From TrEMBL:
InterPro entries on file: ArsR-like_HTH, HTH_ArsR_DNA-bd_dom, WH-like_DNA-bd_sf, WH_DNA-bd_sf
Native source species: Caldiarchaeum subterraneum
Coiled coil: none
Pfam families referenced in this protein's UniProt entry, alphabetically: HTH_5
Name under which the protein is recorded: HTH arsR-type domain-containing protein
Residues of the HTH arsR-type domain: 16-88
A GO molecular-function annotation: DNA-binding transcription factor activity
Length: 88
């Protein structure tokens, strides 16, 4: 199932990307995680997770906290409402 928050305003939304971002968002709905944890929980390669986290950050759907190896990712709440309104 495609999560409405997976739709981005900055890129063309193709089904595979939507599905991938939906998986990442589903994991982050449970709480903040590192990119490695997201990769393990979703089964997605780490480079794919990092690519989509960058896209999700650009649209302010996720944000990172910390630096270096301690970086944790979380949903912002800010971009989510506008994305849901645009899709819904």
């Amino acid at each position: 199932m495609i999560n409405p928050r997976a739709y981005l305003t900055s890129v063309k939304n193709v089904r595979k990307g939507l599905e991938t971002r939906s998986k990442i968002i589903t994991v982050l709905e449970e709480g903040e995680c590192s990119a490695i944890e997201i990769s393990r929980k979703t089964g997605l390669p780490l480079h794919v997770v990092r690519h989509h986290l960058k896209r999700l950050t650009h649209d302010k759907i996720v944000e990172k906290r910390g630096r270096g190896r301690g970086v944790r990712w979380r949903l912002t709440g800010a971009g989510q409402a506008s994305i849901e309104e645009a899709v819904g």
